[in-house]
Amino acid sequence: MPCKKKKVVQHVHSSPAQKSAKAVSNKYKLKGKRMSPRKTMAVRRALYSVCNESMSLRKAARECNLSYSFLQRRYSGETDIDKVKGPATIFTKEEEENMASWLSEMAQRGMGLRTCEFLDFVQDVVKREKRKTPFTDGRPGYSWYIAFMNRNSNLHRHSHRNST
């Protein structure tokens, strides 16, 4: 952040237990799933207001519908701006963007996929690449699909109905 922060005093970890706890904390700090683009923009807007417009963290959090502690962790640098709690996503950001653009392209051509067809496609990719996933039989569930659509908010879910 271009914003000037107060100097943080680093505490020296003296006991082996504290060193081990810090190592575990750092291990899991690097991982995490991505938040939706809308929430990322809200966080960036709030941090911009704090840094450039001299707004308090509390007021910026309230105006952007974020919790104070959520925004404070990102402001202090304790957490990446676009990370949220939970396990990491199965696919990389680039892979998900490719899937999203493929879905969008198929829809523009008039061959939009239903949810189950897209999940079949993802299952084929997982099995072909022999990826280790938490999915049952390598097939993601509907909740994964909803999270995927939320992470790629430029996509729109359309219900396919016969117009006869």
Automatic annotation (TrEMBL):
One of its GO terms (molecular function) is DNA binding. Residues 1-21 are annotated as: Disordered. Pfam families: HTH_psq (PF05225). Residues 45-79 form the HTH psq-type domain. Residues 1-10 have a biased composition (Basic residues). This is HTH psq-type domain-containing protein.
